[in-house]
Amino acid sequence: MTKTVLTRKRVLALTWPMIFANAMIPLVGVIDTAVISFDGDATDIGGVALGGMVFAVFYWSTYFLRMGVTGLTAQSIGAGDSAESQRTVARALLIGLVLGFVFLALKSPISTLAFHVLQGSETVEAKGSAYVAARFWGAPAALGLFAITGWLIGAGHTRTALMVQAVLAVLNGALDVWFVLGLGWGPVGVAAGTALAEWVAFGLGLVLVLRAFNVDKAVLLSRLGMRQLLDSKALKRLFGVNFNLFLRSIFLTIGFSWFINAGARQGDVLLAANQVLLQFIMVWAFVLDAFAYTAEAEAGRAFGRGSVAHLRRAIRLTSEFAFACAAVFSVMTYFGGGWVISRLITDQAVREAAIQFLPWCALVPVLGIASWQLDGIFTGATRSAAMRNSSLASLLIYLALDVMLAPTGGNTGVWLAFLLYFIARGVTLAIGYPALERSVLKNT
Question: Within 10 Å of residue 7's Cβ, how many Cβ atoms?
Fold first, then answer.
């Protein structure tokens, strides 16, 4: 197998489709918030915020399916074993669909338990509960999409991943407008539009992945037989990597849930304002994650080849672009965010509060980029235990900071603690990097 040298041109070729594809992922949340903002008030926005967070706890806790598949796929391809990369996504699809249907079956008790913990007003919680009931119908498709996207990134089919995410975002926007502005369904319409769009995107993604395998039916069936899929060694590795990533995702979701709930404790207006600003963060995080995804795939290939030189080159080339883009996005948010908020948010109190705290939001790209890049590098090398430990340590630091700063600082304290959380995530991962390089050498 030819081992090409990674160049800046190749980094851009792999990354630009994922920039747009990743922008589509949080765009679903942005569209949801924007559409409900046109038609609703602070309680509608807050209901979508809390309902979305309830779903996100279970949705993002299974993000290990995307991360684990990318790392293992890239490592298999780096080692010249394309058949194992195909078995990896098949195993992950089975896991994702089973988990998705379990979540769907348990949507009522999940919602009841969650709204005992969250602290919104009675009206906000009622609207949030209605959102959750509708949104969980898309859970199996959403989790299946994680596995599909993970394989496409790990195998280098980033343009195909872009196509799938574009269909999801465009269809979601169209259905949101129809269900909310046309039919007047409110938060339920937002959730139903997203769920239906996820099923369509999942079907398209599955077809495209099978086509990308580029093998005839007989070869594919021989590779994906039950004996191969249930190989004990492969399953042990898959579950070992994914369990740690599952815990990492849980800890990260708790952190973001804590931030949303911190706003809810201060009233509906600040809850809604923080939710609006969180959409900026999610867009920039996912766009910048495109560079981390390229680093992730290349780190996986470096691990498969046992090449520290390839790893270091991948880190350097992807990080050059990532840090430059992060600085640009911070400046864009600071100077242009107010214009966007003024045109999207009709509720005057929510609009004014969001603009007041916009400068804090603008700092997130430059403070968070190190953690996002390191996340990709550690994922590609499947150093999931280190990611688990880092996520837990940074979460505990964040919770302690919020407890100290929020009671006296109000929403300013909430944002300060949140920014320090991003710094803590980067620092704790950086501490574990030397061990990551040693693990690459051991794989030679």
Answer: 11
Q: Residues 311-325: pLDDT tens digits?
A: 899 899 999 999 999
Q: How far apart are CA 346 and CA 343, in angstroms?
A: 8
Residues with Cβ within 8 Å of residue 335, at least 6 apart in sequence: none
Query: Which pLDDT does position 4 carry in this prediction?
Result: 65
List, as own/partner pairs, every contact residues 183-188 make where C-beta atoms lie below 8 angstroms and the sequence separation is at least 24, other chains included. Answer: 184/39, 186/36, 186/39, 186/40, 186/44, 186/127, 186/130, 187/36, 187/40, 187/44, 187/47, 187/48, 187/51, 187/127, 187/128, 187/130, 187/131, 188/130, 188/131, 188/133, 188/134
Average pLDDT over residues 374-386: 89
CB atoms within 10 A of CB 150: 30
Give the whole-angstrom CA distance, residue 272 versus residue 411: 12
3-state secondary structure of 9: helix
Please state the domain extents for the chain. 8-442
Instruction: Using alpha carbons, select from 148, 438, 157 the residue that is nearest to residue 303.
Output: 438
Per-residue tokens: 410: 């109000």
Residue 254 has a CB neighbour count (10 Å cut-off) of 17
CA dist 272 and 260 (Å) reads 9
Q: Is the pLDDT of residue 286 over 90?
A: no
- Tokens for 434? 């030397």
- Confidence (pLDDT) at 2: 44
In the chain, the amino acid numbered 141 is A
Whole-structure pTM value: 0.75
**Helices and strands, counts by H and E, the chain:** 19, 0
Q: Quick count: other Cβ atoms within 10 Å of Cβ 316?
A: 12
Residue scoring higher pLDDT (420 or 168): 420
Question: In the numeric block, which tokens belong to residue 253?
Answer: 């979701």
Q: Residue 321 carries which side chain, given as an amino acid letter?
A: F
Whether the Cβ atoms of residue 282 and residue 26 lie closer than 8 Å to each other = yes
